């Protein structure tokens, strides 16, 4: 098993797909990393040699990924919340940040439906 940035890469997958297990690396960046490191992107991760894994490690180190990227994202969110910009206010309220509608959807952001009050139905 290959370990890059303290992430265990899935051995049964191709190198390009396996690299996407690292936070901050998508398909395009994984392809670029494989090309720059001169590693065959269709080769399975379990079949990589130690030399190829070392090349991939060296190439991944050039990019901001995993812990550093997570920290940067959290600091950006915290900064927006502190300065009370629109996006920060939406983060505080737990609502969608990027302009999505909230009256029909947004269940992922808003969570399960909350009971507003103990309303009684109108009597007859």
Description of the structure:
This protein is mainly alpha-helical. The protein folds into 2 domains: 3-60, Helicase, Ruva Protein, domain 3 (Orthogonal Bundle); 66-110, Ribosomal protein S13/S18, C-terminal domain (30s ribosomal protein s13, domain 2), CATH 4.10.910. 45% of the residues lie in helices and 3% in strands. The chain is built from 6 helices and 2 strands, in the order ββαααααα. The protein has helices spanning 15-19, 27-37, 50-60, 66-82, 86-93, 107-110, and strands spanning 3-4, 7-8. A two-stranded antiparallel ribbon has the order 1-2. β1 (3-4) and β2 form a beta hairpin. α2 packs across α3 and α4 (66-82) packs across α5. The radius of gyration is 22 Å and the shape is elongated. The termini are far apart. The mean pLDDT is 90.
